[in-house]
């Protein structure tokens, strides 16, 4: 198994950089730069940022070339290029340090790693981490679906498939629903997740001004019911992530 080290640091107020040092090939590193503000969210902090890679990588040698990558290609190509190292190193680091925790959301990539990459030793370690609650599956669907482009039948189907895999493999079901990437949500959202048996729901992408006002008034947590005509069984406790997101 290729061992790698992850370095996470904030280089500007609005930019976080994730540096993956590939120990098997010290001449190469994988960088992921994340802008913490969306376009037009803030008049100053939303502006484009130029990063001097040589400055960021000071002490690691000279930057000879830069190869830009994106999530293109087939599922298997993306899994081999990105996800394999994530799960390999997550399992390794969780075993090394008992204070660490990790949540996994989408089952499609995890299942590809589990079925085609993970060794018997890694599978045993994952089962141990799941039993200890240090590796936790949230949402648990095949993907993190977007209400804007899917019918609720498809949402139920993909949740059922993902939950079925988790129950058959680990004997568990996710306790919390997690939708931090889709832009917006429908009134069906709280009903679907409440009736699916989730205890609470986490979202992120809402109107910037609304999020700022909710944060100022300490209203980022609320009980969400899609319509006043619905019953209490169709509402769910919801938390909105603040502007800094969920990475820690």
From TrEMBL:
An annotated Gene Ontology molecular function: alpha-mannosidase activity
Keyword Heme (UniProt): no
Domain spans labelled Glycoside hydrolase family 38 N-terminal: 74-243
BP-aspect Gene Ontology terms: mannose metabolic process
Keyword annotations of the record: Membrane, Transmembrane, Transmembrane helix, Zinc
Keyword tRNA processing on entry: no
Highest taxon in the source lineage: Eukaryota
InterPro entries in alphabetical order: Gal_mutarotase_sf_dom, Glyco_hydro/deAcase_b/a-brl, Glyco_hydro_38_N, Glyco_hydro_38_N_sf, Glycosyl_Hydrlase_38
A UniProt-annotated Pfam family: Glyco_hydro_38N
Names of the cofactor(s): Zn(2+)
Sections of the chain in a coiled coil: none
GO cellular component: lysosome
Membrane-spanning residues: 6-26
Protein name listed in UniProt: Glycoside hydrolase family 38 N-terminal domain-containing protein
């Amino acid at each position: 198994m290729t061992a790698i080290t992850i370095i996470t640091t904030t280089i500007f107020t609005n930019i976080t950089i994730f540096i993956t040092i590939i120990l098997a090939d010290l001449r190469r590193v994988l960088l992921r730069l994340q802008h913490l503000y969306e376009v037009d969210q803030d008049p100053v902090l939303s502006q484009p940022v130029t990063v001097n890679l040589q400055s960021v990588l000071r002490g690691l040698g000279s930057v000879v070339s830069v190869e830009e990558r994106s999530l293109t290609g087939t599922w298997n190509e993306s899994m081999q290029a990105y996800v394999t190292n994530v799960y390999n190193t997550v399992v390794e680091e969780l075993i090394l340090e008992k204070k660490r925790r990790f949540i996994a959301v989408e089952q499609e990539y995890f299942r590809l790693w589990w079925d085609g990459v993970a060794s018997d030793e890694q599978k045993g370690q994952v089962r141990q981490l799941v039993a200890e609650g240090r590796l936790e599956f949230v949402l648990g669907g095949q993907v993190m679906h977007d209400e804007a482009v899917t019918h609720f039948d498809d949402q139920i189907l993909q949740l059922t498939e993902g939950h079925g895999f988790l129950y058959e493999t680990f004997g568990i079901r996710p306790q919390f629903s997690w939708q931090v990437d889709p832009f917006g949500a429908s009134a069906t959202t709280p009903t679907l997740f409440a009736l699916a048996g989730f205890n609470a729901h986490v979202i992120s992408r809402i109107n910037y001004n609304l999020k700022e006002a909710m944060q100022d008034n300490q209203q980022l947590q609320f009980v969400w019911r899609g319509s006043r005509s619905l019953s209490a069984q169709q509402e769910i406790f919801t938390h909105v992530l603040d502007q800094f997101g969920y990475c820690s």
